[in-house]
Amino acid sequence: MQKEYIVKAKSGIKIPVKKGELIEVIDLKGQQVVDFFATNQTTPEEFLSAGVTIDCNESIKISTGDSIYTNLYHQMFTIIEDEVKEHDLLHPCCRPEMYDFFYHTGKNHPNCLANINQSLSEAFDTKKAEITPFNIFMHTKILPNGKISVEEPVSKAGDKIVLRAEMDVLLAVAACSVSESSCNGGECTPIKIVVQE
Ligand SMILES: [Zn+2]
User: Fold this and answer.
1) What is the pTM of this model?
2) Beta bridge partners of 195
3) Which of 12, 116, 117, 147 sits at 20 to 30 Å (Cα–Cα) from 110?
């Protein structure tokens, strides 16, 4: 059986996923970043950690065969298939303060931190002060001098990544709201999630 979800542009969604189920994340129109975050379904104190994922993989880039880990160093997801191979583990969720810092557009700006927190709060009534998600399709280049350049995503319409859940999770994903830079190719668009039992 499979369930399909459309995440509208600049919005978020929560999806409970069981261990062993496959999660397809599909970029419907191309060049759209997906903020992908999750907590353990029963103990929300355990959650996806981009830092631990970098640590365990000894890499800032992950793709097919690599796993994503929790703050407690447990496997949470494994990447089964990856048509894009450019994703980011460095950037925290966009938030009003970030929009103000760079663009002075923070007031009432849709943002991934709120969209993910709202999705999680429906289940746990908790909010996280900062979230660094797995930024699917986000194209980050590290320059030789250590500077970071956020480039236009290389994902095309219909491109996907498939992950297997390695524990029961509450998935919270957001279609990123940045239209001010190259992050989403200058335009925010919807994404599709398919969960297969
Ligand atoms: Zn965002």
Assistant:
1) 0.96
2) 3, 23
3) 147
